[in-house]
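Why does residue order matter? Because the sequence determines the fold. Keep that principle in mind as you read this record.
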Amino acid sequence: MHTKLCLRIPVLLALIALLVTGCASVPMEAPVKDTESKQFVPDPDKASLYIYRNEILGAAIPMSVFINGKNLGQTASKTYFHLSLIPGQYDIDSTAENNCSLSLSVEPNQNYFVWQEIKMGMWMARCALHEVSQQEGRDGVTESKLIKMQISEEDILPQGQSADSVATKIRELNELYKDGLITEDEYLSKKKALLDQL
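Structure:
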């Protein structure tokens, strides 16, 4: 009897600690933005990406999410990020007791859903990232609330593309035009294509 009681005390203390600490708090977007995001209507020229965490497990643990090395902020229980992205390749990373990652190639006018799964680790919660179906993703997002990102989605570009490389290409294009190596129509067309990448 004494042994059983001793074994139950750590479990009871862990449950009390969870209740006392409560849920993690993260900055939230205005309810109107949450409602707009849940219409699931992507921009015709961009991909719509939802990263959601709809589990109660590990509710007291905020978890950071990164896309192509840019920190979006942290998730908490029943929350999600929504981004409109330029088509291309993206690496999504999350940190907890472990690091988890997922590579995703996105196309314009499409919705993509990534579930941040929470698992119990040795000392704290662990994470895993999964691309899920449209229906599963919509259900998960619908039961969650929109997080306010700590960076602008314009700062997030596909792999292999950076604002610096676009600026460099525009400078090179200007030189070609000044040197008379391309026509004005070619210059304007190519410049517009480069600016559309930003």
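The beta strands are 47-53, 63-67, 70-75, 79-85, 88-95, 99-106, 111-120, 125-132, 145-146.
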